[in-house]
Amino acid sequence: MNRDIDWALWRSFLAVADTGSLSAAARQLGLTQPTLGRQIAALETALDRRLFVKSQAGYALADGAAALLEEARAMHLSAAALARMASSRDDAGDLAGVVRIAASHVVGAEVLPHALAPLLAGHPRLEVELALSNSAADLLRREADIALRMVRPAQSTLVARKLADVPLGLFAHRAYLDRAGSPAQVADLARHVLIGPDRDPTLQPILAALGPGFTRNSLRLRVDEEAAQLGAMRAGLGIAICQRGIAVREDALVEVLPGAFGHALECWQVIHADLRDAPRIRAVADHLARTLPALFAGRIPDHNIPGTT
Description:
- Among the domains are: 7-79, Arc Repressor Mutant, subunit A, CATH 1.10.10.10; 165-265, D-Maltodextrin-Binding Protein, domain 2 (3-Layer(aba) Sandwich).
- The chain has 11 helices and 11 strands.
- The protein is of the alpha/beta class.
- Helices cover 39% and strands 21% of the residues.
């Protein structure tokens, strides 16, 4: 086996494994399909083993190739982290380079844009990548430089800072309440369309906060994607459990039974210990720590950045 294998071949292997298609992987990498096919063949020759099994459904990993996939993915993450580190130009307070932030879909779509707007305006050479997922990013493998999590991490090599409590509330569009009426007490929720999580592990404490008798089946629209919950609420479908800081910024959304639902999440900012002293990482982390508490509380902060004009 040839052990001196070009990283480009492993990158092609990873793209085909992720997409299950030569054509899709070629588009992702900006290559032609024949070129990609030759790269996969070259990697199989170098390894002296078959990597994929082709069928009508596409390309599936051959026996034993899954272990290679995990290592290739780790190489990809390390290469991306190295590229971000090499892009850094933190000279004389002028931040430059790439910072990758991991967050949930709803935080990335509804909260972070307000925080990042003044930061990017004040530092023209700073770039931000958002890795949005409801699964926790693995900072130990450098999937991101900074992560925003709703649970405190346990790993000792990660530096965690609690930024805020994130209160949840029950909200509905005025159009829905005009049509269905407003519940006067918690028991009235049983006759309303409730929107909430499906299989999210945070479901049980949220339902418990509603009171005894509420179960997963009490929710007539169940979806773990918070953005979909917000979309359904904004469309007037029903009453949703959502972050109060997001809902109170919209006049058309009305809090239902204020004070009767007291559940809150915690927002933690997490950084790998090896990165916390990098100037651009520290600057972005400090900016988020200043602005996110206000945003989670429903206030749009001043867009002036300390130290910039």
